[in-house]
Amino acid sequence: MSDSYDVIMIGAGPAGYVAALRCAQLGLRTACVDDWLGADGKPALGGTCLNAGCIPSKALLESSELYDSMQHHASRHGIGVNGLTLDVPAMIAKKNTIVRDLTGGIAALFKASQITWIPGRGQLLPGRQVSIALHTGEQQTVSGQHVILATGSRPTALDAAPLQGETIVDSAGALDWDTVPRRLGIIGAGVIGLELGSVWRRLGAEVTLLEAQDLFLAMADRQIASAALKLYGRQGLDIRLGAVVKATQVTGNGIEIQYQDGTGAHLLAVDRLIVAVGRRPCTEGLATPAADLLLDERGFIHVDDNCETNLPEVYAVGDAVRGPMLAHKGSAEGIAVAERIAGQNSEVNYATIPSVIYTHPEIAWVGQSEEALRHAGVAFRSGIFPFAASGRARAIQSSDGMVKVLSDAASDRVLGVHILGAQASELIGQAVIAMEFGASSEDIARTVFAHPTLSEALHEAALAVDNRAIHIGKARSRTTDG
Ligand code: FAD
């Protein structure tokens, strides 16, 4: 006989563990199956996000930025730093402590919420039964009134650059190096490539990013992406666009990368290489053929707008389904599904999910880009405010970048906000709230912001939509017909 629950989660990343906690809050008897093993070989909750993604990367971005500031910027504040040293193993150990504390925190929340944590690999059987290959080597079967699939994603492999020990690694491997490579190659100049490239560049590596696409950060607003590309270049990130990697060879002297771009074939020699060419859903073998779970052609679990799969009372959330591969998107879906199971009428507003790139300066946006609006034939107005004109940005010596507000030409409703600048990841929350409440640019313009803050740049960009930004000399507003 199998144990039975109201809800069984497969996967305890930010989609699955958040769904589990919300289910427990709603009084549902909940179990969560997860196969992640932490650095110490013990089961760990939190999935990619906590163990090998969002959190460890941000910990290293913070440490490396501090080192970079001490080295290059402290003197501008009149602070002399002599005898600065770098202890990479200590930096990695600090990152591991943060991860351990946070994953332990989820375990404590599970315990307090009486969620049954089953460490092992789950497989969906017909009739909402889940068979689990336990980490202990035993097999267990549980059954649920409802099942939520939240198995996340893993790095996409590249045939031209097979992983090799500590020399050619994926994103997870690049979070654990205990020495700084002299010459670092990165295949892929997307979000993960740029963040990891920033970490190792700040610690002293010469970093070259090879990006197959001709367009830099194709998903971002063009004006923001072009400005960011220049700033990254100034930091020493050598970003080569339209560069398709054909082969790699590990030699006694490092790695030789053969790649092709518009000008011909090239050879790049590096000491270590990160493959960061995207992620694919973890769905192979997730369900037995008899369970008949429908996947799409790219292996994502097929779901409707409410995260319902083709099977009754079986849901799927997070990276394993369509949409942006972001922790907060998965958590929002997990909460909505838990609430729907409990009979509430919850849904996710996909139009206001923010995206962030945690480089310096950061990039963050919500809603539509200029290009997307043009493509859709929407007439819009745009207001831009450069951080160079912000008193606070000057005071913190971080005046690169801008805020850009796009609003509907007829109704003035905000359609998109794009930020390149310090703390963009924090500032974008204000724009998300504004859009969630259907604000117009005039609503933001009439709001009083504290002085001196970086948020004033959002205020000024909203004022600029109507040509009345205070701290810029010439009008920045533009109206574009759809
Ligand atoms: P995951 O976090 O991948 O969790 C899925 C869990 O399910 C894992 O523990 C996995 O082992 C387990 N699992 C899979 N199959 C099975 C099975 N059959 N049985 C049992 N368990 C199974 N996103 C952001 O929003 N912000 C960021 O700053 C950010 N930074 C990132 C940095 C890096 C380096 C990387 C790699 C990713 C980053 N992401 C970031 C993306 C983010 O990590 C993912 O979007 C998020 O983790 C997806 O959550 P999830 O719950 O869907 O899946």
Describe this structure in words.
The chain has 482 residues and is an alpha/beta fold. The protein has three domains: 4-155 and 280-348, FAD/NAD(P)-binding domain; 168-277, FAD/NAD(P)-binding domain, CATH 3.50.50; 352-480, FAD/NAD-linked reductase, C-terminal dimerisation domain (Enolase-like, domain 1, 2-Layer Sandwich). It has helices spanning 16-25, 47-52, 54-72, 88-112, 191-202, 222-234, 327-341, 370-376, 391-395, 424-436, 441-445, 455-465; strands at 3-10, 30-34, 116-125, 129-134, 139-149, 153-155, 168-169, 183-187, 206-211, 237-241, 244-251, 254-261, 264-270, 272-275, 279-281, 314-316, 355-357, 362-367, 380-386, 402-408, 414-421, 478-480. The strands form five sheets. Strands 17-18-21-20-19-22 form a six-stranded antiparallel sheet, with helices on both faces. Strand 4 (129-134) and strand 5 (139-149) form a beta hairpin. Helix 1 runs parallel beside helix 7 (327-341), helix 3 (54-72) packs antiparallel against helix 4 (88-112) and helix 3 (54-72) runs parallel beside helix 5 (191-202). The N and C termini lie far apart (62 Å). The site of flavin-adenine dinucleotide has 36 residues, from strand 2, helix 2, helix 3, strand 3 and helix 7. Flavin-adenine dinucleotide binds at residues 10-16, 33-36, 47-49, 53-54, 57, 121-122, 150-153, 171, 192, 282, 286, 318-320, 325-328, 330, 358.
